[in-house]
């Protein structure tokens, strides 16, 4: 796997690069601004872009805007956003912009090396990895949507799906059977009007609906 890192904090940029190197993951380029990120992904065609939200020159939302642009330049480019904050507007736009290969983690999660590396692999593989705090803040927006039809347990299952957990991991977390999880997920698909297609595609669409409420 080859990645491009966009992070203006030198120590964090070097730290992430070292963590990846220890796992045999090559960093094709490590930059500190959005313009250089776009140049690097076009030059190296990486398997994943790891992007900070706030970078020069204004330190507001350059990273997220660059990530959105990167996914326009290279369709389906997996992007893992690292942020100290939850930037709601751009977060929803990024997470709703494609069928998968997106992640949004708060920087404190990098301290949990195993969790961070799991998110890197999951997003690079086309899955999702969303920080629970990001989910909580997006859910707090409180807009009426089809998710209101879900039971509390179904909402809990969908929340764990949004974090990227497998059915087996969800069953372990909730201390229920694998069959019970499959039943809840089937109910979720039905209530959200997700017609039969590939299981993975419906799963991603359900998660994006959850994150966009």
Automatic annotation (TrEMBL):
<dbReference type="Pfam" id="PF00072">
    <property type="entry name" value="Response_reg"/>
</dbReference>
<dbReference type="InterPro" id="IPR000792">
    <property type="entry name" value="Tscrpt_reg_LuxR_C"/>
</dbReference>
<dbReference type="InterPro" id="IPR001789">
    <property type="entry name" value="Sig_transdc_resp-reg_receiver"/>
</dbReference>
<keyword id="KW-0804">Transcription</keyword>
<dbReference type="GO" id="GO:0000160">
    <property type="term" value="P:phosphorelay signal transduction system"/>
</dbReference>
<protein>
    <submittedName>
        <fullName>DNA-binding response regulator, NarL/FixJ family, contains REC and HTH domains</fullName>
    </submittedName>
</protein>
<dbReference type="InterPro" id="IPR016032">
    <property type="entry name" value="Sig_transdc_resp-reg_C-effctor"/>
</dbReference>
<keyword id="KW-0805">Transcription regulation</keyword>
<dbReference type="InterPro" id="IPR039420">
    <property type="entry name" value="WalR-like"/>
</dbReference>
<dbReference type="InterPro" id="IPR011006">
    <property type="entry name" value="CheY-like_superfamily"/>
</dbReference>
<dbReference type="GO" id="GO:0003677">
    <property type="term" value="F:DNA binding"/>
</dbReference>
<dbReference type="Pfam" id="PF00196">
    <property type="entry name" value="GerE"/>
</dbReference>
<dbReference type="InterPro" id="IPR058245">
    <property type="entry name" value="NreC/VraR/RcsB-like_REC"/>
</dbReference>
<keyword id="KW-0597">Phosphoprotein</keyword>
<dbReference type="GO" id="GO:0006355">
    <property type="term" value="P:regulation of DNA-templated transcription"/>
</dbReference>
<keyword id="KW-0238">DNA-binding</keyword>
């Amino acid at each position: 796997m080859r990645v491009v890192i966009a992070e203006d904090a030198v120590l964090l940029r070097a730290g992430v690069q070292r963590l990846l190197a220890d796992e045999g993951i090559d960093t094709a380029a490590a930059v500190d601004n959005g313009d250089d990120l776009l140049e690097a992904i076009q030059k190296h065609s990486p398997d994943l872009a790891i992007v900070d939200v706030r970078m020069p020159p204004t330190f507001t939302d350059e990273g997220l805007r660059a990530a959105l642009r990167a996914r326009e330049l290279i369709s389906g480019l997996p992007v893992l956003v690292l942020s100290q904050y939850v930037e709601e507007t751009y977060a929803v736009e990024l997470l709703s912009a494609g069928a998968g290969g997106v992640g949004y983690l708060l920087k404190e999660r990098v301290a949990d090396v195993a969790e961070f590396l799991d998110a890197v692999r999951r997003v690079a593989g086309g899955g999702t990895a969303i920080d629970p705090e990001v989910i909580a803040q997006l859910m707090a927006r409180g807009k009426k949507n089809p998710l209101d039809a879900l039971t509390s347990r179904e909402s809990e299952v969908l929340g764990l799906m949004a974090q990227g957990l497998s059915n087996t991991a969800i069953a372990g977390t909730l201390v229920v059977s694998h069959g019970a999880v499959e039943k809840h997920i089937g109910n979720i698909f039905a209530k959200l009007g997700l017609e039969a297609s590939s299981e993975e595609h419906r799963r991603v669409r359900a998660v994006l609906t959850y994150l966009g409420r």
